């Protein structure tokens, strides 16, 4: 995500003051102060990592069955207090209640999924691959994980990182974004009850806090944020293992035979979480023959999605100012804003069309309720436009021709491709990017291996026959 609040500080590691001024926490719905936050500095960072290191032997030594039981207990607490989680999410993000509750329930489901996955590890079958020797593979935890998560999905992104890491036998120190510490703090509190001290701890703070955590004595860094911040994290990692989810700029290929539900579904996906999703639909690409229809249909569909009624505000003033700059700099000849609130951090859905292929709104991850529409001369040009940005996280194709849609989905350079839908995800299905969108896998059983190391063990049995 291209924001100013999801990356470590650019200052030299280890030179942060022992304490820092309190940070104001504002409600993005109203702009009013809702509290303050003391950002963690070196002493607190070291204490959290030391506690995680101390808890590691006991946690990794548990049987998968016992880890499953404890992770299920944490899921129970998330479900029991789902209204409290939802209100904390809303305070920091401004999400509508239905969105917040839905995401909290996804978090409980994720912890349950990985609780079970911990007992179903995969490895090459044991066998005698060398005469007279028996070999097998052990999957071992990496150790202490530093998870730095963004403000767009504070609790859900924490769960995406923490649930598989914990299930694999690691301990985790998670740093939420400075504007959204609330729900992760509650998760850490419940983790102490369900998992034990030091197994999962939160470390609230700002970009300096994040930089200190990344530079601390952790074994792996799991980061979700901007490409620039991801490069900084990789440099600070110094050869340590990383998993980097660095945002997207998703193409949407709409063919002339797109089904009738295309417009409403795309408008809903574009405005979900006010468009502040890495995999949100962003760049609509049409053929010449259906360009005008797409513009008309999407204009009408977005007009039915109103800021303040159907979706929430942008998260913070920096993000709102960045969104405004991109819109103002666009050379689009067609720019239409839907009805809805425009005060404070509220921004209505917007459609930009008749714009150059190198327009700022096309090349940047806008991270707001905005769609651009580009015209292609044919399918080959449509694919070239789709793959013409550095990010390659997600994409979608909309057509009534199943065979053609599956072919295009296979040819798109994206870690996740949808056909006649967008933003449809499940704990069972992997999610990850390519190119400037980062590396590594979230979700699915595959994510367990992000936080594990294989060890081959071979035993000599005696004289071969």
Automatic annotation (TrEMBL):
Record-linked Gene3D superfamilies: Aldehyde Dehydrogenase, Chain A, domain 1, Aldehyde Dehydrogenase, Chain A, domain 2
Domain Aldehyde dehydrogenase: 23-457
Pfam families reported in the protein's UniProt record: Aldedh
Keyword Mitochondrion: no
Catalytic residues as annotated in Swiss-Prot or TrEMBL: 245
Superkingdom, natural source: Bacteria
Signal peptide region: none
Biased segments, Low complexity type: 1-25
Stretches for region Disordered: 1-30
Keywords from the named record: Oxidoreductase
One example GO MF annotation: oxidoreductase activity, acting on the aldehyde or oxo group of donors, NAD or NADP as acceptor
Family designation: Belongs to the aldehyde dehydrogenase family.
Record's protein name: Gamma-aminobutyraldehyde dehydrogenase
Native organism: Kitasatospora indigofera
């Amino acid at each position: 995500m291209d924001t100013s609040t999801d990356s470590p500080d650019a200052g030299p590691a280890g030179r942060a003051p022992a304490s820092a001024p309190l940070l104001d926490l504002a409600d993005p719905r109203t702009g009013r102060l809702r509290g303050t936050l003391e950002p963690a500095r070196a002493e607190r960072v070291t204490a959290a990592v030391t506690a995680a290191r101390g808890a590691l032997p006991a946690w990794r030594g548990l049987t998968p069955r016992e880890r499953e039981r404890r992770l299920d207990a944490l899921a129970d607490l998330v479900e029991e207090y789902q209204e409290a989680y939802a209100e904390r999410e809303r305070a920091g993000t401004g999400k509508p209640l239905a969105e917040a509750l839905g995401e909290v329930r996804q978090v409980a489901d994720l912890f349950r999924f990985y609780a079970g996955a911990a007992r179903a590890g995969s490895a090459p079958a044991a066998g005698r691959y060398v005469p007279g020797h028996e070999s097998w593979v052990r999957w071992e935890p990496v150790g202490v994980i530093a998870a730095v998560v963004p403000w767009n999905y504070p609790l859900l992104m924490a769960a995406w990182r923490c649930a598989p890491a914990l299930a694999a036998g690691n301990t985790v120190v998670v740093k939420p974004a400075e504007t959204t510490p609330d729900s992760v703090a509650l998760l850490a509190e419940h983790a102490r009850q369900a998992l034990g001290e030091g197994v999962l701890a939160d470390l609230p703070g700002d970009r300096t806090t994040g930089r200190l955590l990344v530079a601390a004595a952790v074994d792996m860094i799991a980061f979700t944020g901007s490409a620039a911040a991801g490069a900084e994290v990789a440099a600070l990692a110094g050869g340590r293992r990383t998993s980097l989810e660095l945002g997207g700029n998703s193409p949407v290929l709409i063919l002339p035979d797109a089904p009738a539900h295309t417009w409403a579904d795309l408008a809903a996906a574009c405005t979900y979480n006010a468009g502040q999703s890495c995999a949100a639909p962003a760049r609509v690409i049409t053929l010449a023959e259906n360009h005008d229809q797409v513009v008309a249909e999407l204009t009408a569909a977005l007009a039915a999605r109103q800021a303040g009624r159907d979706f929430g505000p942008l998260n913070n003033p920096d993000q709102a100012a960045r969104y405004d700059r991109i819109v103002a700099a666009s050379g689009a000849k067609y720019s239409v804003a839907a009805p809805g609130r425009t005060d404070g951090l509220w921004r209505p859905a917007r459609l930009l069309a008749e714009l150059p292929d190198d327009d700022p709104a096309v090349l940047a991850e806008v991270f707001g309720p905005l769609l651009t529409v580009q015209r292609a001369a044919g399918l080959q040009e449509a694919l070239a436009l789709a793959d013409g940005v550095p990010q390659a996280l997600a994409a979608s194709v909309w057509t009534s021709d199943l065979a053609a849609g599956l072919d295009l989905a296979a040819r798109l350079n994206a870690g996740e491709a949808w056909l006649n839908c967008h933003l449809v995800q499940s704990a069972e299905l992997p999610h990850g990017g390519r190119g400037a969108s980062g590396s590594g896998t979230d979700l699915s059983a595959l994510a367990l291996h992000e936080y594990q190391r294989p060890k081959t063990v071979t035993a000599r049995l005696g004289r071969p026959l």
